[in-house]
Design goal:
Blueprint lengths: L8 E3 L3 E6 L4 E6 L22 E3 L24 E3 L19 E3 L19 E3 L19 E3 L19 E3 L21
Parallel strand pairs: 1-4, 4-5, 5-6, 6-7, 7-8, 8-9
Antiparallel strand pairs: 2-3
């Protein structure tokens, strides 16, 4: 793979979702591999450095799930990353990926999202189906247009009030009792 410097897109998944920014919705895709399971258990050490889109979405009931993503560090051209449905808990290697515009880490073991702090180019972020309770760090992601926080352990969403670019927000299945901070989000079209 390292010799394929011209590659911009790599998809190692049989099913995945991508955010359609024009229509403000997630679109589901299926590969042509006749529903064969994703047998990738680790990330290849020779990923092309110029890759812009990488989809390595695992399977819910699959023993081949990725837990270590440290080899993604340094992929500075990466704009779209989908690591959903794996067993990842440490995302610190993503901290320097400032070109990221779309990130999907749904259905993992995520509780700490502090790595998001420097990712100010993010426009769509899917953190659903994890064990996240503290979303304070999101207040600095002012370019977000789509944010999925569903199925977590979130109770305080006051930090979202400054995300005035948000058009789509999913907070379902959390522990939220006060939604008043969302009143000022005038761009919000889907809640």
């Amino acid at each position: 793979l390292g010799l394929c410097e011209h590659l911009e897109t790599l998809i190692f998944s049989n099913k995945w979702e991508e955010f359609d920014e024009d229509n403000q919705l997630w679109i589901k895709y299926k590969s042509q591999n006749k529903e064969q399971k994703n047998l990738i258990a680790q990330i290849h050490p020779l990923l092309p450095k110029n890759i812009k889109k990488l989809i390595i979405s695992g399977n819910f009931f699959n023993r081949y799930q990725i837990s270590d993503i440290s080899l993604l560090q340094g992929l500075s051209s990466l704009e779209n990353l989908n690591l959903s449905c794996n067993q990842i808990s440490d995302y610190s290697c993503l901290e320097g990926l400032s070109s990221l515009k779309s990130l999907n880490i749904s259905r993992n073991k995520t509780s700490d999202i502090s790595f998001l702090q420097g990712l100010s180019s993010l426009k769509s972020l899917n953190l659903s189906n994890n064990i996240i309770s503290d979303i304070t760090i999101l207040q600095g992601l002012c370019n977000l247009k789509s944010l999925d926080l569903s199925h977590n352990k979130i109770s305080d969403i006051s930090f979202l009030q400054g995300l005035t670019s948000l058009k789509s927000l999913d907070l379902s299945n959390n522990q939220i009792s006060d939604y008043s901070c969302l009143e000022g989000l005038s761009s919000l079209k889907s809640l």
